[in-house]
Specification:
single chain; alpha/beta; globular; 40% helix; seven-stranded mixed sheet
Length: 314
Amino acid sequence: MLFPMYTVTADVLLSMTKVEPHEKLKAWGKLVDFDVGLGKAAFVSHQWLTQRHPDPDFKQMRTLQEAVTRMLSSSGSVSLDPVTEAVVQTAKPLPMKEFQTHAMFFWYDYFSCPQLRHPTRVSGETDNLHQAKAINSIPAYVARCEVFIALCPVLDCPLERRVLTPATWSSRGWCRLERAARELSPNSTWVLIRSETSIEALGTVLSFPRGPVGEGDFGKAEDRSKLAPVLRRILTQKLNHCLREGDLPGFRRHFNLQTVYLRGLQIEPVTVLPSCEGDVVVEFLHQNGLKRVGKGDSAGWWPLHYATLSGNIQ
């Protein structure tokens, strides 16, 4: 983690009437540098309603407040979405008590990361450096959060001439990166909030439309290049996790899906082993920890299956 994980407590979140920037909340002493010993953290992924402010009329945040109030005060569980329930046999609803037994802290980009465009600040090299460090720390923030929330109410944005929906959240490049960080982490389950009463737990990538980060929508074109090394770091962490857990089939799947994950980004894929200087087939087997073309691994996948994932079937 390159920059502190600034969060707000549930009480501070629920008492807000305006979404203030990082600098103001920090000056007011409202931010908490989160540590796992303090309780549980929730990472809030959301769309900005305007280019300059994420939620100028407090519409999106009000939805979050209402949903969080329900999660902190109700009995029962957050239900699974239908696809997760049908596909993931081991998936279970999230008990509301999971949000109530420990103090909750919330990470939200506008008040957790330095905001260079806030009119009361003069952007300097230090500010740029801190913001860059916070962006590069997103995978670490997501990994530290027990809860990942996609805040996706349907909202009209007349000044931007668009309507925000869960589908537009899924198409946004920044949101795709945050989702990838969650789905490629050991705890891949996340919570989708459409409204106070529409809260679902999702546990499979099949539950919701997705796409490569590099092919997502960006308000600023240069943001695409900012996120390339961040996504590469997420993939590196996932591959290393698979190796530590002895999950070689999982390693091979994600290793060969890099052509999909990194599509649209100008960055080299992750390599774990040095080249063996062999021909294409020998190099492929070497990088995947396979010995022969004509033999499957413990998951029943043959080298050709993995080559198909990477688009390299020559």
